[in-house]
Amino acid sequence: MEPKEYRQRVQRLEQPRPVARNALWAFVVGGGICLIGQVVQSGLMAVGYNEETVRAPTAIIMVFLGAAGTALGFYDQLAKIGGMGANLPITGFSNAVVAPAMEFKQEGPIMGTGARIFQVAGPVIAYGLLAAFVVGIVRYALVGATP
Amino acid sequence: MSVQAARDLRRRGHLRLDATIAGAATVVGPFEAQGPLGHLFDRVVQEELCGENSYERAERCLMRKAVELLLDHSGASAAEVDLLVAGDLLDQITTTNFAARDLGMPLLGVYSACATTSESLLLAGLAVTAGSAGSAVAATASHHLSAERQYRYPLELGVQRVPTAQWTATGGAAFLLGSGGDGSARIVAATVGEVQDYGLKDPNNMGAAMAPAAADTILRHLRARGQTSRDYDLILTGDLARAGLPLLGELLAEEREHPGHRLQDAGVLLYAESQDVHAGGSGAVCSALVLGSLVLPRLRRGEMRRALLVATGSLHSPRSYQQGESIPSVAHAVELEAIV
Prior knowledge:
The complex is a heterodimer of chains A (147) and B (340). Chain A has helices spanning 3-13, 19-46, 55-71, 75-82, 84-87, 90-103, 109-116, 122-143. Chain A is mainly α. In chain A, 22% of the residues are buried. In chain B, α7 (206-225) packs parallel to α8. Chains A and B meet through α1, α4 and α6 of A and α8 of B.
């Protein structure tokens, strides 16, 4: 069998990913995390935060929950079921930073945790900054400096 | 090309060997012990860390334990072993090199990823056949969590695995080879694999990447020996798993070899489907565990006459994958015969 023919056969035989089931679970898990976020936000507003000031403390609490779930060995199980539903909310970003931080502790605080803490989240941070920079330039070109 | 040259080409990589497998020892982690072969392993370590403080050290512990157990069973001492041929999956085969530091045997460290089991048996058998080693040990080990650390993602990172992904087995296995005498089986022949690359790039489907290497080696072995697959009670591939095994069947069928139920895969046998390992087991120790716990005892009891071990290895590294390269693979075959 020629390599090309073989590759086509591999693709044909490859067990399809259970897309519908994955999407449903992503909705349930992602929705659940967002529901928790909403409860946290409403709770904070009930104790005096307003629409503007509530954002930062809500994010901080959600990041903490993601980190705690990772440290307790629970978040990877959640993501196994929920996929992108668990990866996309800010708790998933927290997991992406805390997991390598824990992982590379064995290689020491400098070359381990310090050097590799952003191994997974690094691209998000790097290209997030780049995108923000580009959007900033475009905005400046269109409307000029904000007074 | 002369007739003589054509014959030589057909026998390329083929070796006639004469060595006895005098003993075997298998050590597994708790998860492997829950699999269908769980009750057949010699020892189960109760925790993934094997009493160490890192998974890399735990993998060494598994290899060391397997070799020590083997010597214990065989009533031999380390000083009586002329040669240790061993390999593993970690960078610079640190498991092997560091375990050998404690074992005190002349070491040949080898690497062919998950084909290491048959490569080390082949080389140890060659040394015994040549008479340059009176006794030799072939050993290998792998650890699910150290492999995850090296090849995939941090352990606690939330990742969804795909259906074709495989599960690196946690365990260590060692085999004692000698010339003549009592034992569970004889190694009578072997075929050194040729590296194959059909251009597959997905490290989450290693079974498909390795099936062509297994097919090539099996066919070359059968031709060199003048056999068909029907001459075997078992042709055991290393870790093609549920994704790769049917592909191998198709590749063999194209060459009019139909091994049917004789063709089995260690990655499929090692775990139950309910253990959620997706396509099946993998890892350097995967085929060695099935060989030591299932195949050798059957050969010894005469329930099988002849078996072909075809351990398969994906030869990529995380770096080669990140640079967009395809996955080269290799398979080495070792032919085992029951001692009458």
